[in-house]
Each structure stands twice: as structure tokens, then as C-alpha cells.
């Protein structure tokens, strides 16, 4: 949502099967078709299995989108028939498991996985652009057959004005973790490392923010390890996360590759913590080395290495000046290379390229809609071999700066 809110040349609309209300989306920008109850569930499942929903297609046509941007591979696969019917380019962003996991679901849900696997070749062929949130994810996509010339790496980034160093009252030493309680987050190795840290520093607090299926198991493990100062806060809003980051000594991101192959893309919380001037200890895993500068903005350790995590924590706890210098370097790195506004501007450049390529692509009857901020006009290519595509492209280019495209 942060990325959509920072679009400047496109107007975002939020399309999906159902709106759960979990995000504060503007009501006039929501486009969904499946309601509550058994009928809505049946309509949603039918659409995911077949990609067919006349009512959804009608709703999308009513907003006359210029392009579709899907997040996660399965959304791209589900959106492909819609983009084809609407004759608009489809862009898909891959965040992690959708590019790395070899086994995602079991039971009835596995049927969808098998359908998506068979449809992947169509997405690779027809998709206008494939966006990886890290270089690591881009490499994984290429290994899966995604076209090199249409697969790019664009980290989402963070709002460096919202996440910035804050002056808080000094507090006791504190190690912070933020993330879901699932296997790939590696929380068990952090708990074990803190047991080693406690042998030398019993004053150190461990605060864990997040929820997930492994929460009960991890709480039991913390009790079994007899950790003296550990707090499981559960799910928290962004303001609470920022407040905890402002008083933490460091953030630890002990991610690992799950048994299913599921790996991180580029954990946004690592960017957020560094934007707030926190040094980060992270594993040499997936996209994490692309954001942490080892021994400059934090430390990189090996996956599942309890010893290395414990040593890095004790090192940072014992050297205030080092923590401060690393925090300053971390903030600068994010400001220059993982700035949400700059990264979103790059994405919009690719939006425009996808639209230009779509206009000049093979086929007849292509239609381009150009929407200035207040009003609009339409360029329509009819079925004609003599259509002047050069003239149309020049008109499109001339109005790009004053244009806001609709993005779904």
C-alpha cells in the first residue's frame, strides 16, 4: 500500500476477489466482486480455478485501467485472463516465496498450486514486466524461466521521512525482532543465541513483534531456555514498531531457508530499522546482504549459526560508538538506495515503458487511455493496418508528464 500511495503519475485502484478491510483503502478506489458467505467463497474459488468472472471484468472495465500490477505470482496468474480481456499490460511483483518455494501448500489448496504451475509459461510469455524485490529474487525468477529482458529488480524501499532516527530517553539494552512467526524467519536461532548472551549480560531485553503459527512453540522454547527478559508483543501497528525501534539497541533478522525452499525477498523491516538509524544483524540469506553492509551498517552471519548471532549481539552491546556509527551508515544507505519515493519513481518509469511497448506491439485494435489529473482524453487505435502508431506514440510521450494513468 505504501508503494501505491507514493505513485505520482498513476492513480491506483485496488482490485481483488474480496476486500477484508485489513487495510485502510479509499472506498471509491476498491474494485472487488465476491461478497461474504458461501456464495462469495464459491465465486472466489471459481475465479481462482478458472480466471473467469464476468462481473469482475465488468467492474474493471468501468474504471478503464491503463495497466494491471499484481503482487505475488499467483495474483499475476489470476490476473492474466483479465489483462488479456482488457487489452492492457500486466506487471507482476515477486516478493519471496513465490519465486523460491518448491512446495507451498498441502491438501485441497495444492490443487491451485498445480494449476498455477501449469499456467506459469503463459504468464512468462504474455506478462509485460516481472519485478523482483531483490537481485536474489530476480536470479531465482530467471532460473524458473522468466525472460531476462522483462525481469528487473526494484526494491520497494521505505519512507525515510516516516522512518527516521528519534530522540528517546535512554533505556536498558534491547534486542528487537520484527516479523512473522514462521520457519523462514529463524526466530528459534535468535532465542538460542539470547540464551548464550544471557550468560554474560542478564540485563538485555529481547522484544519480539509479530504473530504466526509458530508463536506457541516459540513461547514454550523461550520458557524452556529460561530467558530472563523476553517479551512477545504479538502483532503491532506501524507506530508501535517505530516506537520500539527508537529505543532498541539493534534489530536482528535471523532468516533461514525453510524446508519448502521458501526464502526472503528483501525484508522491508531491515530497511525500516536502518532508516531509523539502527544497526542490523542479519543472516547471509537471500536479499539481506543487498541491504546490510557488513561491518559498516551491521553484521552478516551464517544461517542457523547461534554462535555468530550471539557474538554479534554482544559486540554491538559492548560498543556504543560502533552502534552509533553503524546506525548513521545504515540510515544513509537506505536514504540513497532504498528510498520509497525514489524506488516508486523507478517503477513508474517501467510502467510507462510497458505502456509504450504495449502500444507499438503486434496486433490490431489496441486501445490506449490517457488520463490527465482533472478530466481526460482518449487515443483509440481501430482495426487498421494503416494506423499511425508513430503519431500515437508521439502524442503519448508529449502528455506523459501531465498525465496520471490508472493502475489496478
Summarize the structure.
By secondary structure, the protein is of the alpha/beta class. 43% of the residues lie in helices and 15% in strands. It is globular and about 65 Å long.
Helical amount: 40-55%
Please tell me how large the radius of gyration is: 23 Å
Low-confidence stretches: 363-405
Q: In CATH terms, what is the architecture of the largest domain?
A: 3-Layer(aba) Sandwich
**What class, by secondary structure content?**
alpha/beta
Largest sheet: 6 strands, parallel
Which CATH class of the largest domain?
Answer: Alpha Beta
Across the major sheet, the strand order is 10-9-8-11-12-13
Structure description:
The protein has 408 residues and is α/β, with parallel strands linked by helices. 43% of the residues lie in helices and 15% in strands. The protein contains 15 helices and 16 strands. It has helices at 2-5, 37-50, 54-63, 73-86, 97-100, 109-126, 135-143, 187-198, 215-224, 238-247, 268-275, 306-317, 320-337, 340-360, 389-399, and strands at 10-12, 14-16, 30-32, 68-71, 90-94, 129-132, 151-153, 174-178, 205-209, 230-234, 250-253, 280-283, 298-301, 367-370, 377-380, 405-407. The strands form 5 sheets. It has a 6-stranded parallel sheet with strand order 10-9-8-11-12-13, with helices on both faces. The protein has a 4-stranded parallel sheet with strand order 4-5-6-7, with helices on both faces. The protein is globular.
Amino acid at each position: 500500500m505504501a508503494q501505491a500511495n507514493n505513485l505520482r503519475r498513476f492513480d491506483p485502484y485496488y482490485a481483488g476477489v474480496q476486500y477484508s478491510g485489513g487495510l485502510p483503502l479509499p472506498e471509491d478506489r476498491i474494485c472487488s466482486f465476491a461478497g461474504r458467505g458461501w456464495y462469495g467463497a464459491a465465486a472466489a474459488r471459481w475465479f481462482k480455478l478458472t480466471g473467469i468472472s464476468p462481473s469482475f471484468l465488468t467492474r474493471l472495465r468501468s474504471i478503464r485501467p491503463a495497466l494491471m500490477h499484481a503482487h505475488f505470482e499467483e495474483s499475476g496468474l489470476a490476473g492474466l485472463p483479465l489483462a488479456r480481456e482488457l487489452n492492457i499490460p500486466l506487471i507482476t511483483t515477486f516478493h519471496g516465496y513465490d519465486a523460491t518455494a518448491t512446495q507451498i501448500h498441502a491438501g485441497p489448496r495444492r490443487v491451485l498450486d498445480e494449476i498455477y504451475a501449469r499456467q506459469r509459461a503463459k504468464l512468462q510469455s504474455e506478462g509485460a514486466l516481472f519485478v523482483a524485490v531483490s537481485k536474489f529474487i530476480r536470479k531465482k525468477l530467471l532460473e524458473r524461466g522468466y525472460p531476462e529482458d522483462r525481469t528487473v529488480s526494484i526494491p520497494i524501499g521505505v519512507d525515510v521521512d516516516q522512518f527516521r532516527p528519534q530522540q528517546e530517553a535512554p533505556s536498558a539494552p534491547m534486542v528487537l525482532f520484527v516479523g512473522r512467526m514462521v520457519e523462514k524467519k529463524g526466530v528459534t536461532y535468535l532465542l538460542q543465541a539470547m540464551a548464550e548472551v544471557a550468560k554474560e549480560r542478564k540485563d538485555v531485553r529481547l522484544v519480539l513483534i509479530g504473530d504466526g503459527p509458530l508463536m506457541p512453540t516459540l513461547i514454550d522454547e523461550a520458557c524452556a531456555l529460561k530467558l530472563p527478559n523476553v517479551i512477545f508483543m504479538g502483532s503491532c501497528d506501524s507506530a508501535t514498531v517505530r516506537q520500539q525501534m527508537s529505543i532498541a539497541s539493534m534489530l536482528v533478522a535471523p532468516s533461514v531457508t525453510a524446508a519448502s525452499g521458501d526464502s526472503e525477498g528483501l525484508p522491508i523491516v531491515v530497511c525500516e530499522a536502518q532508516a531509523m538509524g539502527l544497526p542490523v544483524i542479519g543472516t547471509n540469506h537471500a536479499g539481506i546482504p543487498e541491504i546490510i553492509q557488513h561491518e559498516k551498517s551491521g553484521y552478516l552471519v551464517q544461517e542457523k549459526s547461534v554462535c555468530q548471532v550471539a557474538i554479534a549481539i554482544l559486540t554491538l552491546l559492548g560498543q556504543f560508538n560502533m552502534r552509533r556509527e553503524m546506525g548513521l551508515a545504515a540510515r544513509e544507505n537506505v536514504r540513497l538506495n532504498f528510498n520509497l519515493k525514489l524506488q516508486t519513481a523507478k517503477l513508474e518509469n517501467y510502467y510507462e515503458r510497458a505502456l509504450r511497448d504495449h502500444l507499438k506491439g503486434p496486433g490490431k485494435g489496441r486501445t490506449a487511455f490517457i488520463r490527465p489529473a482533472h478530466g481526460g482524453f482518449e487515443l483509440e487505435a481501430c482495426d487498421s493496418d494503416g494506423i499511425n502508431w508513430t503519431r500515437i506514440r508521439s502524442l503519448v510521450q508529449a502528455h506523459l508528464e501531465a498525465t496520471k494513468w490508472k493502475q489496478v
